[in-house]
Amino acid sequence: MKRIVTIQDISCVGKCSLTVALPVISAMGVETAILPTAVLSTHTMFSGFTCKDMTDQIVPIAEHWKKEKLGFDAIYTGYLGSFEQIEIVSKFFDEFKTDSNLIIVDPVMADNGKLYPAFDEAYAKENAKLCAKADLIVPNLTEASFLTGLPYRTQYDRQYILDMLDALAQLGPKYVVLTGVSFEEGKIGIMGLDTETKEYFEYYTDHVPVSYHGTGDIFSSVVTGALTRGKSLPEAFRIACDYTKETIEYTFRTTGPDTYGVDFEVTLPKLVRAMEEI
Ligand code: PXL
């Protein structure tokens, strides 16, 4: 059985980061080891959340894993807490990277033109160093703009996205995929670049006009699970786009717009079936 490790926080309530990655990637038939970077009462969009930093545990945990000769078919990072954690995770990559495993970095730090409350621009720049060591990065447009220094735009053309992909490629990863790309009213999706072959790929679904927290984490978790199970890059992104869209649609239809995360628990069987189909 394939095994991945995901490094991100536990938001005890909030349906994001590890409470999403663990069930989603497990349901895809991949053992999901976790390395929690912090324990929060909720994600940071609630006011008054508590946070216990786990930085001092990361190195001892990694050292134990090394001693036990544990390895991972993929290393997937999401929300991290600090400069120091970026440095430690970067060393973790050096320790656990092999010729055949994949490093997937979702540089979670911002959305809709703004950084999340816990971060500043210096943190954003530091995140670029982690992206340099990744095989695949999956920023949204806001994160891409903080990583590259290119302006964030809500109205743009194809050239803007191509320029953004090129600027991301300069950071050093093998594959860059921009999420939340929309060239046409009512459609949204991804555009990616294989920096070695210089080939672009893209995929779009209908746009459900509502925004929920944690959907980026669901998306990246599905990409991680699908790639680890041997799907190609375009297949993995198609499965992730379709599943995320269906889950947002279901949540909007049944629960409505005012909820802190999407009801992915109900739609997981569809994801399992999609994995069997392709
Ligand atoms: O979904 C991204 C995320 C993960 N973890 C924490 C967050 C957020 C987004 O705000 O606050 C703690």
How would you explain this protein's 3D organization?
- The protein is an alpha/beta fold and 278 residues long.
- The chain has a single domain, classed as Ribokinase (UDP-N-acetylmuramoyl-L-alanine:D-glutamate ligase, 3-Layer(aba) Sandwich), CATH 3.40.1190.
- The protein is built from 9 helices and 11 strands.
- Strands 3-2-1-4-5-8-9-10-11 form a 9-stranded mixed beta sheet, with helices on both faces. A two-stranded antiparallel ribbon has the order 6-7.
- Helix 1 (18-27) packs parallel to helix 7 (215-228) and helix 7 packs antiparallel against helix 8 (233-254).
- The chain is globular and about 50 Å long.
- The mean pLDDT is 96.
- 3-hydroxy-5-(hydroxymethyl)-2-methylisonicotinaldehyde (PXL) binds next to strand 1 and helix 7.
Q: Provide the succession of SSEs.
A: EHEEHEHEEEHEHHEEEHHH
Q: What's the CATH architecture name?
A: 3-Layer(aba) Sandwich
Global Rg: 17 Å
Main structural class: alpha/beta
Characterize the overall form.
globular
Q: Determine the CATH superfamily.
A: Ribokinase
Strand order of the largest sheet: 3-2-1-4-5-8-9-10-11
What percent of residues adopt helix (DSSP H or I)?
40-55%
